[in-house]
Design a protein that fits this description.
single chain, 470 residues, alpha/beta, TIM Barrel, 8-stranded parallel beta barrel, two-stranded parallel ribbon, 14 strands, globular, GH_1_N_CS, Glyco_hydro_1_AS, hydrolase, GH
Length: 470
């Protein structure tokens, strides 16, 4: 017997910069993704180039009605997307918002509600306006708190009656590893000081808490959550040195959630600051703002890693954004991400025990090179049994966590429709239940095709998880 709650929020997730396209339409300004044609693997360019797959994405900007209809056919209860900051404030520091941008998200959310789908909105999902990155060096500058506050007040006022669930920043802890993509910081990673990096972190944490405070004031019925990149870290061996190495690595991820949930910096991160000569500039009122804590914690989960104190064994896994050592007991995806369904049960328990806040899995999925083939009805499909197996095994472990007593609000698969990869800006790395006819050379009709997993997920949602195979 499965035990998913009756009100469990099943759905899917995307980000504006990876699917909308229309990068220069209806008053939209440029954001950092427009000059990252190779994702995190390449250097930024001076201006957008048409080899950047994100400029067109999957053209959701013009096709959202058809796409949401497909999501509704699967039975989505919730659809996670982001608002592109530069659609609302083209430069980020503009005095007035762009009405055409505001109108687009009105229409998008209205279309969701037409089918009974709740929008789950990420306020900032790796989409810092390019002007803020170039002029202010992104979140290194305290000025961004004010620009973000203006943006937040604008969208809360506009969509407060249409959006119940909000996330302040996507994978906020990823700024430690990808400062440009996550924090709009133009300083190259090798030149960025720990002082500047953690000052940027402080500014984001204050901004996040400020958004939570404002959200609770303006929208008393809304739920405001944080969003972290989760990655269980196991000791490579039982040696105490490896156990402590894993603990320290965990601390660097946990502290973002600790601040969001507990409202203050934990002592272990203060020790790290002292030992690395980091002296945060904390302004009057910052500590009071941080006390405005989130209603729930959301997170992405794709893989687990190991950690060791043995420098000779400290080899970073292929495709791994957050460091760590490969686990010799786990298989890997085509992109070198280790597959660990039990890790999602583990991290759910760890987060619940630590924070006692409702948890929301807002990203989980398998990126793979799908093959479009003819189906028996004369159309086209993808026989993605590997994706079905991956998602089934992870959802079984989510159910185990619920049986453990963990409060889980919902589950949105990443890339519910094929989109452009954030890490590599490729199209061949596909996650969706819906195949989009677009390819890395820019070819394709952008036509949509239902994969085998489309019908599988429809059945899982309709049965509230009862059709999972254990």
């Amino acid at each position: 017997m499965t035990t998913f709650p009756k009100n469990f929020l099943w759905g899917g997730a995307v980000a504006a910069n990876q699917c909308e396209g229309a990068y220069n339409e209806d008053g939209k300004g440029l954001d950092i993704q427009d000059i990252m044609p190779r994702g995190i693997k390449g250097l930024p360019t001076d201006k957008p180039t048409m080899d950047n797959m994100k400029l067109i994405g999957i053209d959701l900007y013009h096709r959202y009605k058809d796409d949401i209809k497909l999501f509704a056919e699967m039975g989505f209860k919730v659809f996670r997307t982001s608002i592109a900051w530069s659609r609302i404030f083209p430069n980020g520091d503009d005095a007035e918002p762009n009405e055409q941008g505001l109108a687009f998200y009105d229409a998008l959310f209205d279309e969701c509600h037409k089918y009974g789908i709740e929008p789950l909105v990420t306020i900032s999902h790796y989409e810092t306006p390019l002007h803020l990155a170039r002029k202010y060096n992104g979140w290194v500058s305290r000025d961004l708190i004010g620009f973000y506050e203006n943006y937040v007040r604008t969208i809360f006022m506009r969509y407060g009656k249409k959006v119940k669930y909000w996330l302040t920043f996507n994978e906020i802890n990823s700024v430690l590893h990808e400062p440009l993509m996550s924090g709009g910081i133009m300083t190259p990673k090798e030149k960025l000081t720990l002082q500047d990096l953690y000052q940027a972190v402080h500014h984001e944490l204050v901004a996040s808490a400020l958004a939570t405070k404002i959200g609770h004031e303006m929208m008393p019925e809304a739920k405001i959550g944080c969003m972290v990149l989760s990655m269980p870290i196991y000791p490579l061996t039982p040696h105490p040195d490896d156990v402590i190495a894993a603990m320290k690595a965990d601390h660097m991820n946990y502290f973002f959630g600790d601040v969001h949930v507990r409202g203050q910096y934990p002592e272990y991160i203060k020790r790290y600051f002292r030992e690395n000569h980091i002296e945060l500039q904390i302004e009057d009122g910052d500590e009071e703002i941080l006390k405005h804590t989130v209603d729930f914690v959301s997170f992405s989960y794709y893989m687990s890693v190991c950690e060791t104190a043995d420098l000779e064994k400290k080899k970073k896994g292929k495709g791994n954004l957050m460091g760590g050592v490969p686990n010799p007991y786990l298989p890997s995806s085509e992109w070198g991400w280790q597959i660990d369904p039990q890790g999602i049960r583990y991290i759910l328990n760890m987060f619940w025990d630590r924070w006692q806040k409702p948890l929301f899995i807002v990203e989980n999925g398998l990126g793979a090179m799908d093959e479009l083939i003819d189906d028996e009805q004369g159309g086209k499909t993808v026989q993605d049994d590997y994706r079905i197996s991956y998602l089934n095994d992870h959802l079984v472990q989510v159910n185990e966590a619920i049986k453990d007593g963990v409060s889980v609000m919902g589950y949105t698969t990443w890339g519910c429709i094929d989109l452009v990869s954030a890490s590599s800006a490729e199209f061949k790395k596909r996650y969706g239940f819906i195949y989009v006819d677009r390819h890395d050379d820019g070819s394709g009709t952008l036509a949509r095709y239902k994969k085998k997993s489309f019908f599988w997920y429809k059945d899982i949602i309709a049965s509230n998880g009862d059709m999972l195979k254990k």
